[in-house]
Design the sequence.
């Protein structure tokens, strides 16, 4: 399993917290921040820090909605937010003017409309591990499917 991290991903995960650490290659992805080599058109995961999520869901909304539309073509698409619901609702970024209720309502609407999974994680370390587990599960399932066909 080789993880692809998009070249534009800032402060990207290196998955060094995983034992043994997986191979990570940096390459340009058309959609999302993470995928798997050989499965770039089947799985995509977008990572958002709390401040990035509020910025993207507010001023960057039109661009993000175009990305969500592209994500609907994938077998599996997810957005991982490096903050839990309580933090999103009660402790939004200090500089954001976006109402946290708008963020919650937008996530609900996008998840339903675009069939994209949204997961909130309590912190960055958990988000990194969870992102790895999603990628790993997808890869294992594809490997099992291929083995069954042999």
Sequence:
């Amino acid at each position: 399993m080789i993880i692809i991290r998009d070249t534009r991903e800032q402060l990207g995960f290196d998955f060094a917290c995983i034992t043994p650490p997986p191979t990570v290659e940096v390459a340009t992805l058309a959609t999302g921040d993470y995928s798997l080599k050989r499965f770039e058109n089947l799985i995509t995961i977008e990572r958002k820090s709390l401040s990035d999520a509020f910025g993207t869901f507010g001023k960057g909304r039109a661009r993000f909605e175009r990305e969500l539309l592209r994500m609907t073509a994938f077998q599996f698409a997810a957005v991982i937010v490096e903050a839990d619901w309580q933090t999103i609702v009660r402790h939004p970024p200090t500089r954001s003017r976006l109402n946290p209720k708008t963020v919650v309502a937008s996530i609900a609407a996008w998840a339903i409309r675009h069939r994209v999974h949204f997961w909130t994680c309590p912190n960055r370390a958990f988000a990194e591990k969870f992102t790895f587990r999603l990628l790993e599960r997808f890869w294992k399932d594809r490997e099992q499917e291929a083995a069954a066909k042999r």
Remarks:
- Residues 2-141 form a domain with the Rossmann fold fold (CATH 3.40.50.10130).
- Helices lie at 50-57, 61-71, 85-90, 100-114, 124-149.
- The mean pLDDT is 96.
